[in-house]
User: Which sequence fits this backbone?
């Protein structure tokens, strides 16, 4: 047998033994090494005294955000206890702004509802959600005595079966389980302007969450724009008081199709241009893809997470956005000099209505969620300005 035939035979044998899913495990390995490379580059930057810095963040006092699955049971419970605490504290949002905002937790949901048209498919998308997640983490620490850091959900690790992952397995040490099973649900139909709709496979839940720390949680706000399994859409201001159970409809089909390791490595981290990076992350309109950002949200399902504006109404939102931030952080640190301060986009959703380009001087403000107004330039580095954190895998 000639060498060419041998190589060919080996290739066919490998292909037969490793169906499409195995490609993703290859990408998971690649993703791990890209995370490591980003962390190592970040450490070099922190140590580099020739780079002028505004903050006193050092390698010694960096705080480390970790994946949920690597936390001890005690640390997981400390996190969910702090979230329940935030849900028991009074809201700062006045009833005149959001009559349905009843808790400190709801302040964050109401802010996200009010700003949704300006913080998705816009120039502030990445930095806004970084600042939002950080201030939620700070509220857990400062107002609820939480000693840990914001954990994240690496979607790619569990893309074939998210419902059995340590995040959603329903144990006392999870973020609560799936919703109660509802049979015969149609797909979720997503529409965006005049683009062809995207159909998302329904999940294996649909009803109220019945297990884990958030089984008695009340979702107070929403709907704003909630696609239903029959193709219709429920609409509202989202700001009225509408108490109901936390629902989920966890969909492995969505996770596998959009929030897998191959898409992070091959489609996302490859982009040199931040405009392409953040567009692919959110799903290029008309491409049929919802990106890893949509992938995470619609994997959760239910009547917070299928509703873009109200999605922080499910506490898993912050683990999802931890991973979004980790993906941006990785992208930035793979080419620090060119990517750290890269911004693209305007102040409105797909620039509709047309608005000014976002710049490093653009100010964002989380209103009653807290944190105060801040310029984009402060939010680009996780080790300068107000931040001093890194990620571990
Ligand atoms: C980090 O350590 C430095 C040097 O000890 C200290 O001045 C600074 O306040 C610390 N910064 C943070 C964010 O903890
Ligand atoms: C992974 O995600 C990409 C992008 O959405 C998709 O094209 C690909 O089919 C997905 N892989 C699997 C195994 O579903
Ligand atoms: C806004 O950004 C676009 C794309 O980068 C650029 O072509 C355009 O000139 C900018 N507009 C202004 C007013 O700076
Ligand atoms: Cu958002």
Assistant:
């Amino acid at each position: 047998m000639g060498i060419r035939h041998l190589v060919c035979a080996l290739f066919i044998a490998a292909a037969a033994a490793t169906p499409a899913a195995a490609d993703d495990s290859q990408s998971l390995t690649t993703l791990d090494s890209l995370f490591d490379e980003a962390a190592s580059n970040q450490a070099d930057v922190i140590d580099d005294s020739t780079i002028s810095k505004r903050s006193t963040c050092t390698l010694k006092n960096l705080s480390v955000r970790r994946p949920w699955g690597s936390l001890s049971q005690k640390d997981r419970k400390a996190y969910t206890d702090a979230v329940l605490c935030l849900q028991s504290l009074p809201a700062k949002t006045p009833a005149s702004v959001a009559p349905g905002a009843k808790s400190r937790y709801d302040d964050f949901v109401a802010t996200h509802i009010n700003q949704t048209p300006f913080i998705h498919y816009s120039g502030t998308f990445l930095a806004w959600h970084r600042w939002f997640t950080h201030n939620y983490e700070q509220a857990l620490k400062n107002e609820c005595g939480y000693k840990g850091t914001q954990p994240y959900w690496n979607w790619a690790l569990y893309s074939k079966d998210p419902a059995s992952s340590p995040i959603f397995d329903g144990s006392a040490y999870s973020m609560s389980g799936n919703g109660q099973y509802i049979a015969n649900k149609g797909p979720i139909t997503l529409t965006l302007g005049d683009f062809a709709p995207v159909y998302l496979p329904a999940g294996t839940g649909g009803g109220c969450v019945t297990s884990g720390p958030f089984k008695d949680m009340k979702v107070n706000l929403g709907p704003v724009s909630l696609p239903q399994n029959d193709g219709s859409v429920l609409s509202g201001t989202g700001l009225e008081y509408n108490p109901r159970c936390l629902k989920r409809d966890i969909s492995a089909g969505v996770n596998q199709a959009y929030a897998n390791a191959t898409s992070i490595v091959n489609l996302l981290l490859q982009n040199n241009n931040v405009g392409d990076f953040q567009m692919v992350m959110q799903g290029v309109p008309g491409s049929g893809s919802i990106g890893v950002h949509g992938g995470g949200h619609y994997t959760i399902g239910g009547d917070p997470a299928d509703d873009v504006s109200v999605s922080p109404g499910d506490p898993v939102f912050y683990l999802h956005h931890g991973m979004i931030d980790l993906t941006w952080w990785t992208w930035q640190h793979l080419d620090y000099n060119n990517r750290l301060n890269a911004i693209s986009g305007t102040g409105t959703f797909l620039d509709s209505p047309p608005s000014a380009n976002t710049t490093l001087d653009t100010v964002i403000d989380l209103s009653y969620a807290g944190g105060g107004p801040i310029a984009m330039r402060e939010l680009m580095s996780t080790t300068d300005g107000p931040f001093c954190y890194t990620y571990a895998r």
Summary: The longest strand covers residues 206-209. The longest helix spans residues 20-47. Residues 1-20 have pLDDT under 50 and may be disordered.
